[in-house]
Amino acid sequence: MAILVTEDTKLAVAGITGREGSFHTLNNRKYGTNVVGGINPKKAGTDVEGIPVFADWATCVAESGANTAMIFVPPPFAAASALEAAQAGVELVVIITEGIPAHDELKLYNTVKRDHPGTRVVGPNCPGILSPGKANVGIIPASFFRPGNVGVVSRSGTLTYQIGNELAQRGFGNSSIVGIGGDPVPGSSFIDVIELFEADPETELIVMSGEIGGSAEEEAAEYIRDNVSKPVLGYIAGFTAPPGKTMGHAGAIVSGSKGTAAAKAEALEAVGVKVGRTPTQVAELAMELLGSPS
Asked: Which residue, of 64, 83, 213, 215, is most buried by count of CB atoms within 10 Å of its CB?
């Protein structure tokens, strides 16, 4: 079992005809993901190496049965495309696009929550979701990873890969790897994904990788304390980040003592989550908790 993307995923891609969109869509298909279509109003009726291109999401869903959307269109149009996918009944919308205006993200988040509760949004500005051996939706380099019992959720794409690789070097596989993105208004939070891992029988250990800024990690700590029975490991990037400086992601900015790596680690450790100071230490802590993988 895995979470969010599985063998049942039927993926369609907005932006499939662009350079980045086509490259990663074909990589996802090569991995084994069932890619059923793409969206481009100006190129409807054509195909990308056999993948049909539709004019809009409603037509795509009706004719291909797509249940998962990947958004690769430019920032000014990305939120509208994601909302159109939700309106068409797509269950999971993964937004890879970086640089979407914050007010567009906020409008999308509120509209989907209010009008389309059957749709889950992951991202924006995220690397996507990988369930090793089952499906890859996004830009995660799948060759590093194999199926296993460790679930990973992260705000940072690069750290997602690094922690996953550290775990893989010690023999651990992954149930699923979920990048939720580092923008100010993510469609899914740590809590949303941890809840899924808690219910997933294949996941025996949950690893969450946070960073400075916001309060998502502190909120996750409270949720873990009250709702999670499985062991959780943490990593927080940015222990040396200077206050007031934005660090890469739009949501990674510290004001005063709130949102610092130290404050987040303290909140997690207070509820029993062991926090590694490096990705390597996270993998060592996994060894302590689960022992050597068979």
From this structure: 213
Q: How many CB atoms lie within 10 A of CB 265?
A: 22
Residues of the chain below pLDDT 50: none
Query: What are 11-30's pLDDT values in tens digits?
Result: 999 999 999 999 999 999 99
Q: Under a CB-based contact definition with an 8 Å cutoff, are residues 162 and 136 in contact?
A: no
- pTM higher than 0.85, yes or no? yes
Tell me the two tokens of residue 56: 């809009």
Catalytic residue among 24, 103, 116, 249: 249
The answer to whether 249 is a known catalytic residue is yes
Which residue type, as a one-letter code, is found at position 44?
Answer: A
